[in-house]
Amino acid sequence: xxxxxxxxxxxxxxxxxxxxxxxxxxxxxxxxxxxxxxxxxxxxxxxxxxxxxxxxxxxxxxxxxxxxxxxxxxxxxxxxxxxxxxxxxxxxxxxxxxxxxxxxxxxxxxxxxxxxxxxxxxxxxxxxxxxxxxxxxxxxxxxxxxxxxxxxxxxxxxxxxxxxxxxxxxxxxxxxxxxxxxxxxxxxxxxxxxxxxxxxxxxxxxxxxxxxxxxxxxxxxxxxxxxxxxxxxxxxxxxxxxxxxxxxxxxxxxxxxxxxxxxxxxxxxxxxxxxxxxxxxxxxxxxxxxxxxxxxxxxxxxxxxxxxxxxxxxxxxxxxxxxxxxxxxxxxxxxxxxxxxxxxxxxxxxxxxxxxxxxxxxxxxxxxxxxxxxxxxxxxxxxxxxxxxxxxxxxxxxxxxxxxxxxxxxxxxx
Length: 414
Ligand SMILES: *Cc1c(COP(=O)(O)O)cnc(C)c1O
Fold this sequence. Notes:
Layout: H1 5-11, H2 15-22, E1 26-30, H3 31-44, E2 50-55, H4 62-70, E3 74-77, H5 80-88, E4 96-99, H6 105-112, E5 118-121, E6 136-142, E7 162-163, H7 167-176, E8 181-185, H8 195-216, E9 222-224, H9 242-253, E10 260-263, H10 267-270, E11 274-285, E12 289-293, H11 302-306, E13 312-314, E14 323-329, E15 338-346, E16 353-357, E17 377-381, E18 387-391, H12 396-400
Helix pairs in contact: 8-9
The structure holds pyridoxal-5'-phosphate.
Pyridoxal-5'-phosphate (PLP) binds at residues 55, 57-58, 76, 99, 187, 190-191, 226-229, 264-268, 361.
């Protein structure tokens, strides 16, 4: 199931009042569900030297990051703003991992400032960009033709990572610089719910790790298996069997007694614990039936960008309501501004509230301002039932902010 029963029970009885109080649209996140999922994740890997570095890009809101930090997560950052966010909520250097690609010297300097963090390098040539010799680094492996799935694509076409054959030279170059502690990283599957598919890619990573250890003459400090744990977006999707995954990894880890297990999950941790609440504002009949809502793809890109499915519920519709087949659309001048295409939904009227589910990861954060569409507010349903606004909606002033103070910036041919 997309939205958990618990979240539904915590949210829906008060949703009309919450929507009236804050106005629509908004993403709302469930503190209780997020904490439960993190605890389930840590429990599954209990006994292993396991660390989760939450992929900040999934839900870069400091109020959420604070909850995750309280639950013991570190943070996987890929840009300077993400580093700043992690530091602002007080994450110490050992809880920050910097993974990027096509990285500049300035970004490495920012990552290594403040005592530094775990650095994950996407190419050996980037060693020359480091402002100083870090304590520990990992390299990201691109396994070539062996694995992959639709969001990340075929590894040999992906811009990420270092080909397997080139890894040994990369570690040698790092050793030559005086770096002594190493890890190995891979992130080749995304939104994968098949534990066996994850295990196949972790097994391959472990094979390569053994070869690297042999070459280095000592153990790797950590192996980072990346994120990519999938969630059921469709009602009939089977959830990932975390127990199977953890059991398989435990078996592989018996060969790595000295090595920490890093994971950088985003979607799995927060994805199911957010919904986009939007109000129906128009109905239209043309060659199809359209339900127009007050959110646009500026609030949620995934359907338009990947054709991703997000389950939609109509608040208060009885289970036996008669349905109609509709496209649920926003207001952007782009025909892919649709939250659902040819979906059977209970018949709606303007004023009805829709819950577009599983927006807790790669939802608000992927939003953009094309067509002058402003991004919506984010709310947090606290464990005690209160609802806090944790990000306001964008305003016209935000939209125009980058046009201010540009007058002095002029070049002309002398
Ligand atoms: C996006 C990303 C993740 C998180 O992916 P999820 O699918 O949200 O688990 C982890 N690691 C890296 C390097 C990423 O780019």
